Amino acid sequence: MSGVVNFAAEIAVNTHRGNIIGTVTVPMLSRTETVVTLMHGYTGNRSEFRIPSVREGLFERAAHKLASAGIMSFRFDFRGSGDSSGLWRDTTFTGQAEDLANVLDFLRRDKRFTARSIALVGFSQGGLVALKAAAAGERVERIILWNPILDPLRTYGEIFGGQNMNHGRQLAQEGRTSTTVGSTELAAGFFGDIYATKPIDDALRFRGPLLIVAGARDCIAADGPNLAMSVKTKRCVPTKVVVIDADHGFDATRGTKGVDRAIQATIKFLLK
Would you give the DSSP letter of residue 27? Predict the structure, then answer.
């Protein structure tokens, strides 16, 4: 595997709740013993949104850039998304953290990855999930967050509206977590997790190096740059914040400048 430039292969991670489908991208010459696991955002998949100017997904481009810098990566579809098993309606933060735990267990057991440490890159909701899993005890060396959801109540409240939020919370409190909430196409378990998840607290529990790349014009991840700086102030371990003049998708609709800045900041953090 190590003798091929940007060699990519699809891999199925078998779990008791179905298959999780991922793609490993391998560099010709490794510069680090770290494998980077990339996690997509809300409604995304392992390629993430398409960048029109280059006709490739955000995570496809990231994987190729990482490989060119000598870094192996593994990107995967959460259950209910992309090619993995399951239904979208059953998506929850807790379930996605379990998916990540299964992927990390696979990476630690599979002979192609066992000698490597693990770093996480989480975009948007994927960043929230990365922090949730790490705070629960998953062993990872570093975490990189791209426009992470650090205030889920405000972010998803703006997406779904107060009526759906309140209805979903009530159903979850009643134990009706599998009941679909309004027209959201999501079960109440998702809304229960919105109220129960505290990403900033999770970030403080993680004891390894943390990088947050935030778009200054991000209108999706509520108050992203300010909350990122708050995390940096509160943490007693190495924390770096890079603010890019870009929107939630790093201005991908305008080209690759913002996207590439996020990727290069990530590569620099991984190799230092």
Answer: -
Mean pLDDT of the chain: 95
Token output for 177? 């977590």
Distance of CA 243 to the CA centre of its chain: 18
Strands (E), the chain: 7-15, 18-26, 34-39, 50-51, 56-57, 72-76, 117-123, 142-146, 210-215, 239-244
The residues pairing with 22 across neighbouring beta strands, listed in sequence order, are: 11, 76
DSSP 3-state assignment of 187? Answer: strand
Using DSSP's 3-state secondary structure scheme, residue 119 falls into strand
pLDDT level of residue 6 (50, 70, 90 thresholds): low
Question: Tell me, what DSSP letter sits at residue 180?
Answer: B
pLDDT for 151-209, tens place per residue? 999 999 999 999 999 999 999 999 999 999 999 999 999 999 999 999 999 999 999 99
Residue of 150, 155, 137, 138 lying closest to 239 (CA atoms): 150
Q: Does the reported pTM lie above 0.85?
A: yes
Query: 35 φ, ψ to 5°?
Result: -105, 130
Q: What is the DSSP string of 75-100?
A: EEPPTTSTTSSS-GGG--HHHHHHHH
27-75 confidence digits (pLDDT tens): 988 889 999 999 999 999 999 999 999 999 999 999 999 999 999 999 9
Pairwise CA distance, residues 133 & 136, whole Å: 5
Rounded-to-10 torsion of CA 247, 168, 103, 211: 30
Report d(CA 131, CA 146) in Å as an integer.
12
